[in-house]
Fold this protein.
Amino acid sequence: MSSRTLETGKGKEVRIRIPGAVDRIIRTLEEAGFEAFAVGGCVRDTLLGREPEDWDITTSARPEQVKGLFRRTVDTGIRHGTVTVLLDRAGYEVTTYRVDGEYEDGRHPKSVEFTVSLTEDLKRRDFTINAMAYSRKTGIVDEFGGMEDLRRGVIRCVGIPGDRFTEDALRILRAVRFSAQLGFSIEEETLKAVKKIAPNLAHVSKERIQTELTKLLRSPYPEKISLVFETGMAPYVSSHFPEANGAVSHKFSGEKHVRWAALLRNLDGKGAERILKELKLDNDTISRVRTLTEWWSRPIPPEKYELRRAMSAMSEEMFDCLLDFRLAAGTDGPDETERLKELTDEIREAGDCISLKTLAVTGRDLIAAGMEPGRQIGERLEELLDDVLRNPEHNTKEYLLRF
Ligand code: ATP
Ligand code: MG
């Protein structure tokens, strides 16, 4: 991502486009005598010409005062000063200026103190590029050189890196995550501190770590995951994480399960699952990653029976995903992939049976034909399916019961 499209100029000269609802919230607060600004990630992303995921607003008004000014609000995190304002069917987090106390092992600090100073609020933020505020009235507020760092493509802590990482060790992983999302480098002193404070990651919750790793892996520069290993963070991510050694690149499609599978592909299904469980990934992702790690390196000859067998082992969607994965991993070359896809299309067009669901006989049919109920029914059905995978024309009740 090029940061060279950055809008230049300072303060009021810089105009960024903010959604109408955000501008209305800010102006409502201003008209009531408070200060208010768009802040953090949304300012950073807009300056870079990226679409922000959400818009956060920071204000001198206390949560109760914010609630008094808007018709529909939700108490999202009153204790931490956050009220969500609902406007135009969207929600905007409005947070009172605050100074953070020590961080606990959650998303929020143990204690927060409200302040009336925007500067204090910006100081508590992690990186210079995340510590800028904007309003139409004031323009860009950039007290820590965030614009310059955006221009130069640098991730740099606000304040003394060692102190900031000691307050909240998740920040060391966020540094790598932002560097992967934006294609930025990590400033030297910040990087030194990342290495030094890496062991503190052991005290951060696995959910928070996983969220950052997933964002990192799904980013435009997923190869930056290597920094997690080079900086010595890996052993503190989770106990088996250091075993993850697959090279990830943008060639792998950006889905969560694909990027995780790329990283874990040199492990067997169990090994991959162990790491994903340690990091509390959801079961759907775990099962998809298992399928990919188990199948990506197996030979799949360009032959319909072999293909039907592979197809019968997973969903249609995962089979398509597997072919793309193998191409990205270099298991199959472009020509081989093309051939496999052609054959796959033919199999689908012909409507060949590839699962027990569409097999012409069921367990009940076998019992009706005189087989004893029990485990052997399942085994028999698998045998019949294998025959049908070889010879799709055999998929009739008549043939299979005779067989
Ligand atoms: P994105 O939403 O794209 O992941 P973001 O910068 O908006 O990126 P959030 O986690 O949504 O990140 O946080 C919003 C803002 O809150 C950040 O830009 C930063 O100013 C501040 N912030 C978030 N987490 C921390 C943290 N652990 N330490 C210090 N400041 C933080
Ligand atoms: Mg955000």
The two ends are 61 Å apart (CA to CA). The pocket of adenosine-5'-triphosphate (ligand 1) is lined by residues 40-41, 53, 56, 125-126, 130-131, 168, 170-171 (CB under 6 Å).
